[in-house]
Design a protein that fits this description.
- This protein has nine helices and eight strands.
- With 269 residues, the protein is α+β, with helices and mostly antiparallel strands.
- The longest helix has 22 residues.
- The two termini are 40 Å apart.
């Protein structure tokens, strides 16, 4: 009881350091190919704490709600590059299903303090309703991409994420449409027997602007072609198949004709 009262009366400890160090910005830019972690725009970026350093909203009705997530302030897993347009209007908003993660144990704090800046027990034992760019392994379950640049939410988490980071703001949708349509036009040229020089411009998903969303759209396209029985016609020898298997080092691998495997995304370490 005394411990609970002490936690309830405790101010939020300030573990934070400034995020404006060049080494932090440089590291994030290298990991994310100079793209915003949330919209994938290539633009000016700033370090951003995914989980707020205190008073996470909606506030839980318990004695420790105000402490969430003080322990994650400087954990490397919690820091992302973000563009100005994606900066949330409510930075303390961090919804979860059911309960938030508990205050870490002394052992966890000691391991973090003696480690390399990574939180030892990550991901946390909670279900975030904001999609974590480096935790979610398959965004196709959550988001549908249109060539118009619009993102459609397939899950509650996607709806929360798109709204929180303003991922359908008009200027972003317009830019996204322009870029994705350009990739689609290049794909048409390649499939039609065009120059292989276009291949790396559309298949190097981790490096190109909106590469993750283009990859999602590409998967949607392949699924639709497969349903229509057109996949084998689409991937003819001497055309797209050769590009996938030989030209691009990160290309898809084909086994048995129409069974394609998308390359695994590059996750931070």
């Amino acid at each position: 009881m005394a411990t609970d009262e002490k936690l309830a009366q405790s101010p939020v400890p300030d573990f934070s350091v400034g995020l404006d160090y060049f080494s932090i910005k440089e590291g994030l830019e290298a990991l994310f190919s100079k793209k915003c972690a949330f919209c994938e725009s290539v633009t000016l970026l700033a370090p951003y704490r995914f989980r707020p350093a205190m008073d996470a909203l909606p506030m839980e009705r318990n004695d420790t709600g105000h402490l969430c997530y003080a322990w994650m302030q400087n954990a490397w897993e919690n820091i992302y590059p973000i563009c100005q347009g994606c900066q949330p209007d409510l930075p303390h908003y961090f919804p979860v299903e059911a309960m938030r993660a508990s205050i870490p144990s002394t052992r966890a704090f000691e391991a973090y303090a003696s480690g390399d800046g990574s939180w030892p027990d990550y991901p946390l034992n909670e279900t975030s309703l904001l999609l974590d760019p480096c935790v979610v392994r398959d965004f196709s379950e959550h988001i549908r991409v249109e060539l118009s640049g619009e993102l459609s939410a397939l899950t509650r988490s996607a709806l929360e994420t798109i709204g929180h980071f303003k991922l359908n703001r008009p200027e972003l949708v317009s830019r996204r449409s322009q870029v994705l349509q350009g990739y689609s036009d290049r794909l048409d040229r390649i499939v039609g027997g065009g120059a292989y020089v276009d291949a790396d411009l559309i298949y190097n998903f981790p490096e190109i602007e909106f590469g993750g969303l283009w990859k999602l759209y590409f998967r949607q396209l392949m699924a639709e072609l497969r349903k229509q029985g057109e996949v084998q016609a689409f991937f003819q020898p001497g055309k797209a198949m050769n590009i996938f298997t030989a030209i691009n080092k990160d290309a898809q691998r084909f086994e048995g004709g129409s069974n394609f495997v998308l390359p695994e995304p590059v996750y931070r370490t």
